[in-house]
Amino acid sequence: MDGTGGAQSWHPLWYAAGAVLALMIGGMLGRSFVQERGRRVLPVVITSTLVLAAVLGWALDFVMYAFYAPDFH
User: Can you give the pTM of this predicted structure?
Assistant: First the structure.
């Protein structure tokens, strides 16, 4: 947080929350997927978890900035 109190200072928080959610989802679904299909699908699971982290972080950031930005001033 940059100390200004603006909505821009909250960006890292929303991306971190998206990453945590994606890691939890990837851990739950990825583990069973790897057990069913073998370790050869592990790169797909890791890549999709990272993409999901970016998408969830972006989505949370956009929603909070677009709808709740005045609350963070």
Answer: 0.78
Tokens of 36: 């069913």
Distance CA 42, CA 3 (A): 40
Q: Give the amino acid at 19.
A: A
Taking the C-alpha atoms of residue 31 and residue 62, their distance in angstroms, rounded to an integer, is: 30
14 burial (CB, 10 Å; 0-12 / 13-18 / 19+) is buried
pLDDT tens track for 1-53: 445 555 567 788 889 999 999 999 999 999 999 999 999 999 999 999 999 99
Q: How far apart are CA 20 and CA 57, in angstroms?
A: 9
Residue owning tokens 């999901």: 52
> From the CB of residue 13, how many other CB atoms can be counted at a distance below 10 Å?
14
